[in-house]
Specification:
Layout: H1 4-17, E1 52-56, H2 59-72, H3 76-90, E2 104-108, E3 119-124, H4 128-137, E4 143-144, E5 150-153, E6 162-168, E7 171-176, H5 193-196, E8 204-208, H6 215-235, H7 239-258, E9 259-269, E10 274-283, H8 288-296, E11 300-301, E12 313-320, H9 323-342, H10 346-364, E13 367-375, E14 384-390, H11 394-407, E15 416-423, E16 426-431, H12 438-444, E17 449-454, E18 457-463, H13 466-474, E19 479-480, E20 484-489, H14 490-500, H15 507-514, E21 522-528, E22 533-540, H16 542-554
Antiparallel strand pairs: 1-2, 1-8, 2-3, 3-7, 4-5, 5-6, 6-7, 8-9, 9-10, 10-22, 11-19, 12-13, 12-20, 13-14, 14-18, 15-16, 16-17, 17-18, 20-21, 21-22
């Protein structure tokens, strides 16, 4: 597998800044051949296969979702002001003639000659006559052409002076006349809404069909961005940063050559009061990228098994550095280690050098395997934390830690008791917490913390029933785990805030009020592999209510 992290970056990169934020592409079979005849000269066999679609479920639905968000945030007046501002831009009666209950959006295909690429703003029309009057009211009368389409003079768009539109399938298909080659297909050749906009019920969604972009255009994109990033690499003085640019370039090439499609979807369910963000990258079957994505879904973690479903706060991350970054990072690590050891005095070197050497196999592995969870409160109102960290040669690291503790002054190791307990044959070490600060004791109690090594992991437990929790954790086995999964209970987060920030002492009560009734307080972020690499963020909209309460507490 080339690297789990590269694929995770792929999702983030695509979600945040797709190379095609603007419309591109006509039908292609993935090898650069156009499906049908030339895209902007549609013949009898021409078919529109969108490479880019942006779909909004409806104007009414969008406005209703925005109202819900403003209401949950306690900013109804600002929401009303926003609606008035939008109305001022479209006229006192809104978008007249537009069907506000139907989906709308944008669709584009890509031709090897980019100026011939068909692209349409698709507006559902309830009444064509009313719509024409509305367009005329904006300042320019639509001029009907012999082929039944309309042309309108536009202002404020660089190098473009004319827009064209045609009615078909209950929609107005609007496009800008970029060059003389820009042609608006006849009504029977325009894509129906389920093709041009796609299907779905999400508030808004965007899809990029990479395989429908002609290969010549994809290669051009790779070359252009490769030149730009190459210039950045030449200016990059940090070797790890330069390696990151190399890996990003390789990732982009893989995505454009072997990707099938990329999606981003925003959905709001006012009834369930849940907001969801989904992004995904799907590779073409049988490609090297497909094998990498499948391997991403089969990664094994030594520590993810410690997580329980009812934890107030939990997280697991298992990622690998891309190859070039790993090599560069290891070179920096080796150099830093050597320079650091040379600067130590002899008695310091005796303690620190064996520790670093024992940790090097884990550090040089070029990855991270970690898990954490918070549970509680107990009857005493205390919480518990359990942490796991994947290791290489953990038993050797344990021996190095024990040796280091013997070589340091007694007062420096006060409160640490080696081999205090056992779980089977595994030694458990204790750390006295009686002198911890007041806030820590208020959260976790006065009991000791415990830690233990396995050859593949380090585990630590602190708080209520920490020893029992650690013994249970040491029994967990290596399991298949997602590259990333974070879950936060806002009620638990509010407790932590109240302990670390004096102005947040009322945060727990604010969370209780925001999430009263059956409203979930869990925020979840997860990245998965398999047939596709996908990211999902799920958040109750009551988080906005809680955030507003925190803002008032700060003030």
């Amino acid at each position: 597998m080339r690297s789990s992290l590269s694929l995770v970056i792929c999702v983030m990169f695509v979600s945040a800044a797709s190379p095609w934020g603007a419309p591109i592409r006509a039908g292609s079979d993935g090898d650069g051949k156009l499906c049908g005849t030339v895209a902007n000269s549609p013949g009898s066999d021409w078919s529109f296969e969108p490479a880019f679609t942006l779909r909004i479920k409806s104007l009414d639905g969008l406005i209703a979702d925005m109202r819900h968000l403003y209401q949950k945030a306690g900013r109804e007046e600002e929401g009303k002001a926003f609606e008035k501002a939008m109305q001022a831009r479209t006229g006192p009666k809104g978008l007249e003639g537009v069907d506000t209950t139907m989906p709308l959006g944008f669709s584009a295909a890509v031709d090897p000659k980019l100026d011939r690429s068909p692209m349409f703003l698709m507006l559902p029309v309830a009444d064509e006559t009313t719509f024409l009057k509305f367009v005329a009211s904006l300042g320019n009368e639509p001029r009907k052409q012999d082929d039944g389409s309309y042309r309108v003079t536009v202002e404020g768009v660089p190098l473009i002076s004319m827009a064209m539109f045609r009615f078909a399938h209950g929609y107005a298909y609007v496009t800008l006349r970029v060059t003389d080659a820009t042609i608006l297909p006849t009504a029977d050749k325009l894509p129906k809404p389920e093709i041009g906009l796609g299907k779905g019920t999400a508030t808004a969604s965007m899809t990029i069909h990479v395989s429908r972009v002609p290969m010549s255009v994809r290669k051009l994109a790779v070359s252009f961005l490769g030149l730009q990033w190459g210039a950045m690499k030449d200016e990059e003085k940090d070797p790890v940063g330069a390696a990151a640019i190399d890996d990003a370039t390789a990732l982009l090439r893989s995505l454009l050559e072997e990707g099938e499609r990329m999606t981003i979807q925003l959905d709001l369910d006012p009834k369930k009061e849940i907001f969801t963000l989904d992004t995904s990258v799907t590779p073409r079957k049988g490609t090297a990228m497909a094998k990498d994505v499948n391997a991403l879904g089969a990664m094994r973690s030594a520590v993810a098994g410690l997580l329980v479903k009812d934890a107030l706060l939990s997280g697991v991350s298992h990622v690998l550095l891309p190859e070039q970054m790993k090599k560069a990072a290891n070179a920096v690590l080796d150099d830093t280690f050597k320079k650091g050891i040379d600067q130590l005095q002899e008695h310091e070197r005796e303690v620190i050098e064996p520790l670093i050497k024992a940790a090097l196999p884990t550090l040089r592995a070029g990855g991270f395997d970690g898990a954490v969870q918070m549970s509680g409160p107990s009857k005493n109102g205390k919480y518990r934390f359990v942490v796991g960290l994947g290791l290489k040669d953990g038993s050797k690291l344990e021996q190095a830690v024990k040796a280091a503790l013997k070589n340091i002054p007694e007062k420096s190791r006060r409160g640490i008791l080696v081999d205090a307990e056992k779980a089977g044959v595994v030694p458990i070490h204790r750390v006295d917490q009686s002198k911890a600060d007041v806030k820590t004791r208020e959260l976790l109690g006065d009991g000791p913390a415990y830690f233990a090594f396995r050859d593949d992991a380090l585990f630590l437990a602190a708080g209520e029933s920490a020893l029992e929790a650690l013994r249970e954790t040491l029994a967990v086995k290596t399991v298949t785990a997602t590259p990333l999964r974070l879950q936060v209970g806002i009620n638990a987060l509010a407790v932590l805030l109240s302990l670390v920030d004096p102005t947040m002492k009322d945060a727990p009560q604010a969370a209780k009020e925001a999430f009263k009734g059956k409203v979930s307080d869990r925020v979840t972020l997860e990245i998965t592999g398999g047939d596709q690499v996908a990211m999902r963020l799920t958040m109750p909209t009551a988080v906005l209510t809680f955030a507003g309460a925190l803002d008032r507490l700060r003030k």
